Amino acid sequence: MSVDAIVNTEFPKGYTVLFGADGKVIMTPQSVEHSSTIKSMQYDTVVSLGRHAKTVSDVYIDFPADENSAPDLAILREDASREGKRYGFEDVLLISEVVSTSSARKDYDDCTAKYGRYGIPVYLVVDPYAQEVVLHTQPTATGYIAAHTHKYGTGKLPIPLADGRIFTLDLDELPRPEPEADTR
To answer: Rounded to the nearest 5°, which phi and psi values hold at 137?
Structure first.
């Protein structure tokens, strides 16, 4: 499927659509945990960076070689400008992906390698099921040099951005999965 075909395809509402490097298209329903975690991070961007900070969620960002991504959250440079309808990867200061049960390998492995390769300064993996956040910094051609794990419930995590601003992720407020109801 070409990038234009993907962009112009209307996928069912309530599903997350993942595109693998091997050409596979994976559609999974978005979970409450996934949606709530993105909402919590968006709130933290407003508190940390202001209401008008340039952030996007689930919006395509142009990467070279048709490796475009629509990350769960991206924080952009204040002077970022779109080329056509999209921002380029050069404008990204931080990308965060929220792990879902079907995307763990992609978020922990594939995206870490990809975002590092393209020099994204900060990559956050937010895992509601493990109740931890992995903060990747110092990008390299194969990933990141530094990866630090922070548990939910351990306070506020200040994350310096390459432009000098600080994004503070409140680890106490990240939603935790609710226990499944007994259906007996």
So the answer is: -140, 170
